[in-house]
Amino acid sequence: MTNKSRATSVWEVDPISSIIQRIHFKHTMKGLRSISVLSEKRLEGKTTIAMLLARGLTEVYNFKILLIDLNPNGDALLNQYLNEYEKNKTQDGIVTGHPFNFSIFRIKNIDMNWLKTAYDGLYANQLINSFSDQYDIVIVDTMTSNSPNDTGLRVSTQSNIIVSSEKSFGKTANKLQIELEQNRKEVLGVVFNK
Question: The CATH number of the domain where 84 resides is what?
Fold first, then answer.
């Protein structure tokens, strides 16, 4: 199959439970250590899916999971959940004392003077590498930008989960699908968030 015909195909949508099983298999059989959650447009549910994956992998398989929030202002959903826990309760970007059974690192809780490095993917890749020995799987909740050089695509995780909605899911491939296929990045699953 040529790249042109692959780029015009439509991804199949997967239930979260199937993706969690796939992650478990890839981790135990092939050493999967890191996953990015990506979407083409904002507000398609990346953080919700990332949290569901983290919770499912922790509760079902007893994995030690770290969720990295790459939004420099903090994701709105996580801001809502973690607001009371972030007041003087962070340690090097990791939020402590929260009720979730997985760990959370937020880029918004660290020194923002070098935020530009975070945008080019370099810092995110260093984070993933530094935490991969401490956790079974690192899940990166990427930030969606409208720039052609999207940060999410430059985060070097071993696999990707795509979150799509009616805004970007159509009869032809979206921009994100084409970019991932051209860069030969693995897609572990696609979630359609209606």
Answer: 3.40.50.300
Alpha carbon of residue 8 to chain centroid: 24
Assess contact for 50 and 139: CB atoms under 8 A: yes
The gap from C-alpha 83 to its chain's centroid, in whole angstroms, comes to 21
Tokens 């997967």, residue located: 14
Report the DSSP pairing between strands 159-164 and 34-38. parallel
The 10 Å Cβ neighbour count of residue 157 is 27
- Beta strand ranges found along 12-69 (DSSP E): 34-38, 65-69
As given in the structure block, the two tokens for residue 57 are 């992998």
Question: Which structural domain, as residue segments, surrounds residue 86?
Answer: 3-192
Q: State the 10-residue block means of pLDDT for the chain, 194 residues long.
A: 42 79 92 86 84 95 94 85 77 84 88 54 78 92 63 63 62 62 72 69
